[in-house]
Amino acid sequence: MRTIRFGIIGCGLMGREFASAVGRWGHLLDLDVKPELVAICDTNPALFEWYRAHVPTLKLATQDHREMLASKDVDAVYCAVPHNLHASLYKDIVAAGKHLLGEKPFGIDAAANAEILAALRANPGVFVRCSSEFPFFPCAQRIVKAAQAGRFGTILEVNAGLHHSSDMDPQKPINWKRMVKFNGAYGCMGDLGMHALHIPLRLGWKPKDVRAVLSKIVKERPDGKGGMAPCETWDNATLLCTAADPKTGGDFPLTISTKRISPGDTNTWFLSVKGTRCSMEFNSRYPKTLRTLDYTSGGEQAWREEDLGYQTAFKSITGHIFEFGFSDAILQMWAAYCVELAHGAEAVPFGCVKPEETAWQHELFTAALASHAEGKVVRL
Ligand SMILES: NC(=O)c1ccc[n+]([C@@H]2O[C@H](COP(=O)([O-])OP(=O)(O)OC[C@H]3O[C@@H](n4cnc5c(N)ncnc54)[C@H](O)[C@@H]3O)[C@@H](O)[C@H]2O)c1
């Protein structure tokens, strides 16, 4: 069993999700690689207590990421910090020779992303990927396999998105994710967009142009100190793109939709592919249900619903009839990262987001900002 010794930089919401995944690694079967969490870093030391209580392998807790990166005990880093810090920290991590799973959007803007990718080229010995866990839902993986097998025929349209409603309440106090300085000008696109783009980009459905409609709905929020603060970031974004299917060469409309104010949605990730021979839909609101419509010339057109259960890319102890959820997707994503680090891309059926895919994401979101500002179609 190969052990990859990890450090976490950014011990907030997502840092804890990773620590929890490490703690239940025994859930996965037949792997010859495992992560061990040895170091944590956050500028807020109050967060260390939870890790100390739950992570027996911890050797170092520090407020200075340079101290962690100097440690010979750390092979790889999960970095989950606000977007304005991605470029400087990711560059330091790879320059220190540590492997990296970084968070999206992988740089606050296109310039920051380009700096990160230049640092990767200067340090080719490190394995670097970006986080995106929703495509590891079993139904999503089934759609990927159908696309790879050319089952859809001519693709008519693809709709992918991530919608939530955590900003519905205008009285919710502001945090860094609603401030351009920390979150970036992309707003909800930078927060949610990589999840929606991961599968389309991996399947080669790269946008060729974009026409974007962006909405700022809540203009100010309580600042937590009795006053109000401007809420500057885009709440909702709909990007209508032209994409080409590499299997047929044909163009089709690809819609990428990211919303923070979507009534009733709690992290609803969805992917719908409509084709002349087959259509498939998955929506995480119904986490085990895959909808499929197969069509042969003149035949009936009937949607079929199939409950998939725990049919995962990486085998686990959970019986195949049980349900799959968010923290299971996190565990599968980490299995993909660790197995690819240890054995290369051929060893994983579907891998984490590649650095070049993060660059395509930045190209799209930068174009979307221009498209909305100027009310025009922007070519990529
Ligand atoms: N994959 C997903 O589903 C998902 C979900 C939410 C957030 N994210 C991404 O994860 C990243 C972090 O988001 P979060 O929700 O965990 O945020 P968070 O605010 O909960 O955690 C960020 C942490 O970074 C720490 N930090 C700030 N500056 C630091 C520094 N210089 N050194 C060390 N620590 C520092 C903060 O103190 C905080 O604890 C973002 O890029 C976000 O887009 C991903």
Protein described:
With 380 residues, this protein is of the alpha/beta class. It has two domains: 2-130, Rossmann fold, CATH 3.40.50; 134-320 and 354-374, Dihydrodipicolinate Reductase, domain 2. Helix content is 30%, strand content 26%. A nine-stranded mixed beta sheet has the order 16-15-14-13-7-12-11-8-17. α1 (13-23) packs across α9, α5 packs antiparallel against α10 and α8 crosses α10 (355-374). The model has no long low-confidence stretch (mean pLDDT 97).
Summarize this structure as a short list of keywords or feature phrases.
380 residues, Rossmann fold, Dihydrodipicolinate Reductase, domain 2, nine-stranded mixed sheet, six-stranded parallel sheet, 10 helices, binds nicotinamide-adenine-dinucleotide
Mean pLDDT: 97
First CA to last CA: what distance? 45 Å
Computed Rg: 21 Å
Q: Write down the CATH class of the largest domain.
A: Alpha Beta
Helix-residue proportion: 25-40%
Q: What strand line-up does the widest sheet have?
A: 16-15-14-13-7-12-11-8-17
CATH architecture of the largest domain: 2-Layer Sandwich
Ligands in the structure?
A: nicotinamide-adenine-dinucleotide
SS-based class? alpha/beta
**What is the succession of H and E elements?**
EHEHEHEHEHEHEHHEEEEEEEEEHHE
Report the sheet with the most strands, covering strand number, pairing sense and barrel closure.
Answer: 9 strands, mixed
CATH superfamily of the largest domain: Dihydrodipicolinate Reductase, domain 2
Quote the beta fraction: 25-35%
